[in-house]
Write a structure and sequence with these properties.
Number of domains: 2
Largest sheet: 3 strands, antiparallel
Number of helices: 5
Structural class: alpha+beta
Order of helices and strands: HHHHEEEH
Strand order of the largest sheet: 1-2-3
Length: 148
């Protein structure tokens, strides 16, 4: 691993524990992409293509590898906690169902109804972004809880 990748992973760890405060714009964009936080991109007023353009081709090419390393770190850190975001059928009002999981068992979650004006399923969908933000807040709280 290069010193630059090691440095950006430390920035990603910092962002995962709190937020992007204190990071440069490029570091914050890389953290948002690696941590799968489209809500951060929206807050920074960047689309995914704009974020990739801003960080440059060298970093954009490394995002999948950095994300893989990050996921391996998380897996070894604590594999008990995870989440699923499932699309809800249109006859149920659309949107998403969030399932919060501990050791594979559902321990919480919520429903995020479709919002008018959302562009569709997945990234950029406000309901999806809210579900991801809620899931990440829950994961952060689990990792920060003593005795876990």
């Amino acid at each position: 691993m290069t010193p630059a990748m090691s440095n950006i992973l430390s920035k990603i760890r910092q962002a995962a524990q709190s937020d992007c405060t204190g990071l440069s714009t490029a570091e914050a964009l890389i953290a948002a992409l690696v941590l799968d936080r489209p809500d951060w991109l929206i807050d920074m007023k960047f689309t995914i293509p704009e974020a990739l353009d801003r960080i440059g081709p060298q970093w954009a090419e490394l995002i999948p590898e950095i994300a893989r390393i990050w996921k391996q770190e998380l897996a070894t850190q604590d594999s008990r906690f995870s989440y699923e975001i499932l699309p809800r059928s249109e006859d149920m009002g659309g949107g998403y169902q969030l399932r919060l999981l501990e050791a594979g068992q559902e321990v919480g979650g919520g429903v995020f109804p479709a919002q008018s004006g959302s562009p569709g399923r997945g990234l950029g969908d406000l309901s999806y972004s809210e579900a991801v933000a809620t899931a990440h807040a829950w994961l952060d709280s689990r990792r920060a809880s003593p005795g876990r």
